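User: structure tokens for this one?
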Amino acid sequence: MPQEESFLVPRDVYLKSGIHIGTKFRTKYMEQFIYKTRPDGLSVLNLQKIDERIRVAASFLAQYNTQDIIIICRRENGWKAVGLFGKLTDARVFAGRYPPGTLTNPNLEQYTEAKIVLVVDAWPDRNAVLDAVKVGIPVIALCDTNNQSNFIDFVVPCNNKGKKSIGLLFYILTKEFLRLKGRQKEGEDLPHKIEDFTGE
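Assistant:
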């Protein structure tokens, strides 16, 4: 069993959020992140891999200026979480419908340039993924067991549908990102609790 200390948050915090509970459907690509299948048919993701990949995603994002990062979330369950991430890190956020062409068409009013995109779910957020591919910028995606990985540069396996799960993920991501940027001391708590990200 991996050491508890090596996790970004205690194991029970992860478990309580349901971040590891996938769907009954699994794509070929996501199989590598699945730990087991429950008797009810739901896939269970490997916590160690979730934790490792959140770490990598944070260090990947931290290499960019915050204004060059765009977080996209069509799914309403994640609006609170991405909004708070944007507020605390200064990254830009699209919560709700992403207008196609935002990254590719300079004639659009909402046209914007970015150097990296993070999407909460590659399927509802596919317009943003396709735009990012067109302009050649990397895409990080939160992926559940039923997600495809086409056009995704880096996958963070997790339950990307639940409010608590998305909230916890962005809480950890915010903390790690700010620490790597030197804006937060090692072990220092955020001014916001996990509950603020989940909207519970």
